[in-house]
Specification:
There is one protein chain. This protein is mainly beta. The radius of gyration is 22 Å and the shape is elongated. The chain has two domains: 62 residues, no CATH class; 115 residues, no CATH class. It has one helix and 20 strands. The strands form four sheets. Strands 4-6-7-8-9-10-11 form a seven-stranded antiparallel beta sheet, with no helix packed on it.
Length: 209
């Protein structure tokens, strides 16, 4: 009899746990600044979900699955989930035009860069040295590095070397990472031998020859 009761209760407990998890994931938390100028997150009822004394900065206004934050206790920007686990170390861009809507770049311990969406799904693994946004595509580099010499600030540094390619937001290659990048009259060209592509802001990736 006891065994039957336990077996009958198990599906109910599983349903309750699943319902709570789904509820947490679908409830949007909102950024709030307290009277001392500190940021945190509250749920739709006004209950504090992320304490104001935990974070130094909150970059996400509406926290659905992940939020971009800076902790008081450690350096860097992190994507956290609703259990306050740090899921990714985020690489923020100085230039907002380099961002790809609905995604963020993350870095691993080797400082290689990947791309994920705001649900935490990885689009591109962290194997690249640079990822830039272009027309809702990811322009990626392998093997290049920042040249700081003679540049007085981070935003003035130039990225040199390596090979370039382009991926869509399904992680599929548009152009494989075989190409050299060249600037010509304010336009970006990707070239490999006699093969050449123009990155046009209006027309997208245009094959020249």
């Amino acid at each position: 009899m006891v065994l039957r009761i336990k077996i009958a209760l198990f599906p109910l407990l599983l349903f309750l746990v699943t319902s709570i998890t789904v509820s947490q994931n679908t409830d949007v938390w909102h950024k709030k600044i307290d009277s001392m100028g500190r940021c945190g997150y509250i749920d739709s009822s006004g209950k504090v979900k992320v304490p104001f004394d935990l974070l130094d900065s909150c970059y996400t206004e509406n926290f659905k699955t992940l939020a971009m934050v800076r902790f008081k206790s450690k350096r860097g920007v992190y994507a956290i989930d609703k259990q306050l686990n740090s899921k990714f170390r985020v690489q923020r861009s100085i230039d907002p035009e380099e961002n790809i809507e609905g995604t963020f770049r993350f870095a691993n311990r080797s400082k290689k860069i990947g791309l994920a969406d705001m649900e935490g799904n990885i689009i591109l693994e962290a194997v690249f040295d640079l990822i830039l946004g272009f027309n809702n595509l990811a322009l990626v580099n392998l093997g290049g590095e920042w040249d700081w010499e003679g540049n007085p600030c981070e935003s003035c540094a130039e990225f040199k070397g390596g090979k370039w390619g382009i991926f869509d937001l399904n992680g599929e290659p548009v152009l494989k990472v075989f190409y050299d990048r060249r600037w010509e009259e304010g336009k970006t060209l990707l070239e490999r031998g006699d093969e050449s592509y123009l990155l046009d802001i209006d027309k997208g990736v245009v094959k020249i020859n």
